[in-house]
Amino acid sequence: MNSVYISKQKIFNHKNGIFAYELVFKDADNNPTTIANNVKGTAKLIISSITSNELDLLLGRNTLAFINVDEATLTKGILDILNKDRFVLSLCETINLTEAIVKKIVQYKKRGFKLSIGHFDSSAAMIVKYQRLFAYIDIIRMDILSSEPENLKKVMQKFKGTRIKLLAHNIETREDFKKSLEMGFDYFQGYILNQPEIIEIKSSKEPAQVVILQLIQHLKESKTTEEIESFIKRQPDLSFKLIQFFNKSKKLDVQVQSITQVITLMGRDQLLRWLMVYLYSEVSTNTASQTILELALKRAESMEADASEGLKDKAYIAGMFSLLGSIFDINIKELMAHVKMDRDITSLVLEKKGIFAGSLLKAEQAEKAYLRKIMLANFDKLDTTDLIYTLEDGGVEINKDDI
Predict the structure, then answer these.
(1) Where is the HDOD domain (predicted)?
(2) Looking at the DSSP assignment, which residues form a beta bridge with residue 4?
């Protein structure tokens, strides 16, 4: 079971109430890591921990959370599934503010995210660096340890009383805290006020293929868009992949603001077909998954063409499902037990029976005719052991006396 570690430190307001938490993600060796690190591994788990139903347990029901973001985090689309009302995007002090990155930052602000500058050292260089972003920044986390006293005062004079709130960061002594209060800071953070708490988040999600099948079932049952969105948002990996696919497939310059928007613009039919492709090509670790996917798509299209007008959609899904057993190291009956699919689809997948059986047989015969042709043309290239495994897996008895 994979784990990720989150350091959680309180940020206080001037009345000593909890305003927010800073969340810092750690790896197994307790080293800081960004959300963008290892998108296929750590990031999935991090996103899972901060978009799941456990969020209220982690932060409280209404408390904000600061998360540090860099160029990679901003550009990989990972942040798109976060709740804009709960998270403050804190720009790392090392961020390279290229035109593309500034554009991304502005986009997130327009979507409703609060923005912060992290570890602001009050220097002239820092002011120049962020000059064009101050119109979009909500909170400046001023590092009182690394800031020169005179520079700190100048920055306070520049921003105090404006829409930008000021946070005294790295308060390490009671004297620091008293001085920060007297200077008029809005928020306060430091070891003397609160020691960071390390929390371990463990992955305990259902197998991805089961999640996809359940979502397909929701679509087939004509659940409301809100119900479908709610289901998808509980599966951060899927949300991320869906938004990524949508961004790549749409020619329109659409900035994703919600899963509902994606579902609406894609349409349910396209979403359903994308899920089937995702099931074969993304979820499976089978080395032949791409070839089997192409075969499944062709089979599904063939069965769809054969079906009568009112059954075409169902025939397509039945064709795609009919090869699921070939793609996962799991008994197809066990996999199908996790979902309640249409009876005609289930009969075909589990027993090769029902109204689509004839169409499936026709498709299989065409596939076998092609594969027979390929096999005979390349028979001398095939390994004897592989041939034996293939025959025995198919239930063909080999007479050893004839070898």
Answers:
(1) 205-391
(2) 201
> Quick one: average pLDDT of 340-361?
87
**Homologous superfamily of 3-202:** EAL domain (3.20.20.450)
- Flag whether pLDDT at 51 surpasses 90: no
The pTM of this model reads 0.58
Q: Where are the beta strands (DSSP E) in 173-330?
A: 187-188, 197-202
Pairing of strands 87-91, 18-26: unpaired
pLDDT 10s digits, 222-241: 778 888 887 776 666 677 67
Write the pLDDT tens digit of every residue in 71-95. Answer: 888 877 667 667 788 889 999 888 9
Tokens representing residue 84 in the block: 């804009």
Chain segment 55-73, per-residue pLDDT in tens:
666 777 778 989 888 888 8
Between residues 162 and 381, the one the model is more confident about: 162
Please tell me the distance from the alpha carbon of residue 127 to that of residue 142, in angstroms, as a whole number. Answer: 12
Sorted by sequence, the CB contacts under 8 Å of residue 70 that are 6+ apart come out as: 34, 36, 92, 94, 95
Instruction: Indicate where the chain has its CATH 3.20.20.450 domain(s).
Output: 3-202
Task: Quote the distance between the C-alpha of residue 40 and its chain's center.
Answer: 9
Contact (Cβ atoms closer than 8 angstroms) between residue 142 and residue 168: yes
CB count within 10 Å of CB 215 equals 23
Containing 365, the helix (H) or strand (E) segment is helix 357-377
Give the tokens for residue 119: 């570890």
DSSP 79: G
Query: Comparing C-alpha atoms, which of 165, 135, 191, 201 is closest to residue 19?
Result: 165
- Give the pLDDT confidence of 167-212 residue by residue, as tens digits: 999 999 999 999 999 999 999 999 999 998 887 766 544 556 777 7
Who contacts 314 (Cβ-Cβ below 8 Å, separation ≥6)?
Answer: 307, 342, 344, 345, 356
Nearest-CA neighbor of 307 among 346, 356, 361? 356
Tokens of 385: 């052991």
- Residue 135 CA to residue 164 CA, distance in Å, equals 9
- In the block, tokens 């788990």 appear at 45
- Burial (Cβ within 10 Å: 0-12, 13-18, ≥19) of residue 271: buried
Check residue 170 and give left, alpha or beta (phi > 0: left; psi -120 to 50: alpha).
Answer: left
- CA separation, residue 275 to residues 80, 98, 252, 283, 293 (Å): 19, 35, 22, 10, 12
Query: Helix 208-220 crosses helix 268-278 at what angle (to 10 degrees)?
Result: 160
